Amino acid sequence: MNRKIYFILIISFFYNTAFADTFDDVAIAIKSANAKEVSKYFNSSVELTMIESEGVYSKQQAEVILKNFFLQNPPSAVVINHRGSSAQGAKYAIATYECPKGKFRAYIFMKDSGSGMLIQELRIEKE
């Protein structure tokens, strides 16, 4: 019985570590204003909300919109404040995005696509 418990604990540790690493990788890409790197984590279609854009976009369209946002609002700091998960298996993170124009709140929602966690929704809103 103890072996089963240890096995479950080890599997959960590795799952949670992979979950944390994905959000950390996305945060690093956002902080470096690298839309191409962020788009590697996009699902084939992404619900995207930016200051002036809102809608469901293809991975390529979302990358262009994000790149334009970074050009207009170059990040000086990005810090993940909270991480969590839903009962349906979605994972989310809430981050603070700072730039010369002020602070924004970033919401990142991911789901397992079968080959890894992919961003389903990204919202960056003025605080």
Low-confidence parts lasting 5 or more residues at pLDDT below 50?
A: 6-20
Secondary structure category? alpha+beta
What's the SSE pattern? HHEEHEEEE
Main-sheet strand order equals 2-1-6-5-4-3
How many strands, what sense, and barrel or not for the largest sheet? Answer: 6 strands, mixed
Walkthrough of the structure:
The chain is an alpha+beta fold and about 130 residues long. The protein has helices spanning about 1-30, 35-40, 60-70; strands at about 40-50, 55-60, 75-85, 90-100, 100-110, 115-125. The N and C termini lie far apart (about 50 Å). Strands 2-1-6-5-4-3 form a 6-stranded mixed beta sheet. The chain contains 3 helices and 6 strands. It is about 40% helix and about 40% strand. Mean pLDDT is about 85; it is low at about 5-20.
Summary, kept brief:
By secondary structure, the chain is α+β, with helices and mostly antiparallel strands.
Name the features.
single chain; globular; 6 strands; 39% helix; 3 helices; alpha+beta; 6-stranded mixed beta sheet; 127 residues
Secondary structure layout plus pairing:
Layout: H1 2-31, H2 35-39, E1 42-49, E2 54-58, H3 59-72, E3 77-85, E4 91-99, E5 102-112, E6 117-126
Parallel strand pairs: 1-6
Antiparallel strand pairs: 1-2, 3-4, 4-5, 5-6
